[in-house]
Recover the amino acids of this structure.
């Protein structure tokens, strides 16, 4: 059977692999040789599950959104990752990776962050474990995301500005990689999404796979079947989507819908819709689709949502796109903001702007009345309050 | 025989210089090469600028950003180097990241290098296994040598693999660092240099990263074939333009 998971070399079809300079080879190789072994250890699983339950607050509810369902004439369930500690799914991965780092004997953690959500989730688990934490963040993002910078500092992390290139997420990632090159022995790099060199995309997807693992039994309880007709998630790098799809990738009757940020519109030059605008290339050690000039220089994407504004996409998603296993839809800033506000009014839930993109698909995609559509509600909107205030003049 | 291989057989320690193409000014690529040849360097790495040079420190990052802002592209570099062999006899290596080469088309890129008279490539983020499986035949078809990197963390077993696949030199990264991050060598480098010397590899080694002056050049080449200077050269280029290139090279060699 065709599989949409990574093979043993970290390839999803033609995408993935580890396109890294030799300076990173020992770091990635150590992780590659150990990650599956460590994740399979009973003591690891036990500690991971325990923390997800008692610290993160899992399982997160699978909530039948009745008023939203009535409006769009289909059955919509929301997987409430927004109720996780720190406000989004990101913490599932950072818990997994901090436990991994401890078992590998690392005593220093580095991470990159764009909007600051992954940085906060990393700073949180470092505080929990008493491990030194350095978070790289683009200088421009530091200015845009002051509350999350303050959160990281309160949690004891050092926030280092990335001053190179365009001074945003991709440059913060470059700086974190450079730090790892300079500190290859004692440091673990907690990448925040299903991007980067093998084994990161597969490892992060496995830590996030708890999302679809729970959807399966929760849906069985509510609908009498494990498989929905569709599972929907927003995709920047793609970690919440990878988690929501994971146990459905090789279930052909489950439709996979990936929602990208069109920004001001795909053809405006201000967009982050990688599947539509990207070409095959190498970014941050992975072969995938990325936005670049004809000359192979990586370009700066745009989205109102800082979490979707990454010029690449995880190799799993690049493969879902080119193989047509996944259906890719792109949503503009305006449509996402309206959908976010609609969820507030209809269901009393304020979603993150990233997540709001996934909620905005109903104008573009028709569902049948008895379809079961699960939307991964990846994060809550507290962090976006200022954006909502500015946009709606609240 | 390839110009790199011939040069490696000369009975001397080799000085190789890295510079970013199209820097400080876009039309400086050829003049820099000519100054370098006149001042007696042995080999040159021409840096193809990239937007996201993740193995490089600030000096080379900034020169790459400036070169791209100057309008540097792969096509432009090939145009500048079209007649390079009319005046330049030095072994020439293009060093860059894999993505721009991939976008140009690996075969088209290699073909163009061959036409111009480029002798080899250094693409740090093209991994050994991918090179061997997918691109080695193409490189050979166009007479290009591929130089691989090793670091103090590279295992003996992997160094042997790399040595087997090398036909030019092995690029010995002196310490776990990005370019230009450290200056001077310590105990760690000495034991690393000794360890490599004792392995008696078939490929000569040329040391890069952390070499900025005569003292570090001499230390790096005690047990190796030569050394590469990149960030320190670019710093002086930034400060003095192309005029003082000979002075810089002389300060290393004499």
């Amino acid at each position: 059977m065709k599989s949409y998971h990574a093979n043993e070399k970290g390839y999803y079809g033609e995408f993935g692999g580890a396109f890294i300079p030799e300076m990173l080879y020992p770091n990635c190789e150590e992780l590659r040789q150990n990650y599956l072994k460590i994740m399979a250890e009973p003591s690891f699983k036990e500690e991971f599950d325990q923390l997800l339950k008692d610290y993160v607050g899992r399982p997160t509810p699978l909530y039948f959104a009745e008023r939203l369902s009535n409006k769009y004439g289909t059955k919509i369930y929301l997987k409430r990752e927004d109720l996780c500690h720190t406000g989004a799914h990101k913490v599932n991965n950072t818990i997994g990776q901090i436990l991994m780092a401890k078992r590998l004997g690392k005593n220093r953690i580095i991470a990159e962050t764009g909007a600051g959500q992954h940085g906060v989730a990393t700073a949180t688990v470092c505080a929990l474990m008493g491990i030194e934490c350095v978070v790289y963040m683009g200088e421009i993002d530091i200015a845009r995301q002051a509350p999350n910078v303050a959160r990281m500092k309160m949690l004891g992390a050092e926030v280092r500005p990335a001053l190179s290139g365009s001074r945003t997420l991709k440059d913060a990632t470059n700086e974190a990689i450079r730090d790892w090159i300079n500190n290859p022995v004692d440091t673990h790099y907690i990448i925040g999404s299903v991007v980067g060199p093998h084994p990161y995309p597969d490892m992060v997807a496995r830590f996030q796979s708890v999302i679809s693992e729970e959807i399966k039994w929760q849906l069985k309880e509510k609908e009498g079947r494990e498989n929905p007709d569709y599972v929907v998630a927003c995709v920047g790098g793609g970690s919440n989507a990878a988690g929501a799809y994971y146990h459905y990738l090789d279930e052909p009757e489950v439709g996979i819908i990936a929602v990208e940020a069109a920004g001001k519109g795909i053809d405006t030059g201000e967009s982050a819709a990688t599947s539509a605008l990207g070409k095959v290339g190498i970014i941050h050690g992975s072969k995938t689709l990325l936005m670049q000039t004809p000359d192979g220089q990586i370009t700066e994407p745009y989205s109102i949502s800082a979490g979707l504004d990454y010029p690449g996409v995880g190799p799993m998603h690049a493969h879902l796109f080119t193989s047509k296993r996944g259906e890719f839809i792109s949503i503009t800033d305006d449509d996402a903001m309206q959908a976010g506000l609609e969820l507030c009014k209809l269901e009393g839930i304020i979603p993150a702007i990233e997540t709001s993109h996934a909620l905005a698909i109903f104008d573009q995609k028709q569902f049948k009345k008895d379809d079961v559509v699960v939307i991964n509600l990846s994060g809550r909107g507290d962090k976006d309050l200022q954006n909502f205030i500015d946009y709606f003049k609240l | 025989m390839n110009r790199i291989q011939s040069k490696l057989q000369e009975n001397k320690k080799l000085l190789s210089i890295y510079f970013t193409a199209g820097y400080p000014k876009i039309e400086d690529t050829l003049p820099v090469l000519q100054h370098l040849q006149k001042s007696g360097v042995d080999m040159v790495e021409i840096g193809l600028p990239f937007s996201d040079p993740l193995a490089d420190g600030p000096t080379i990052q900034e020169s790459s950003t400036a070169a791209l802002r100057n309008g540097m592209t792969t096509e432009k570099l090939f145009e500048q180097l079209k007649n390079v062999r009319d005046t330049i006899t030095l072994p020439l290596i293009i060093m860059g990241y894999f993505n721009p080469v991939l976008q140009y088309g690996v075969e088209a890129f290699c073909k163009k290098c061959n036409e111009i008279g480029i002798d080899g490539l250094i693409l740090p983020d093209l991994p050994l296994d991918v090179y061997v499986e997918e691109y080695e035949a193409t490189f050979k078809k166009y007479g290009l040598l591929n130089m691989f990197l090793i670091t103090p963390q590279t295992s003996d077993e992997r160094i042997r693999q790399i040595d087997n696949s090398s036909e030019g030199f092995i690029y010995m990264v002196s310490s776990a660092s990005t370019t230009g991050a450290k200056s001077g060598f310590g105990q760690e480098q000495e034991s690393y240099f000794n360890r490599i010397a004792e392995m008696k590899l078939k490929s000569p080694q040329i040391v890069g990263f952390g070499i900025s002056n005569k003292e570090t050049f001499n230390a790096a080449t005690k047990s190796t074939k030569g050394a590469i200077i990149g960030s320190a050269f670019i710093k002086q280029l930034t400060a003095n333009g192309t005029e003082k290139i000979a002075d810089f090279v002389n300060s290393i060699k004499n």
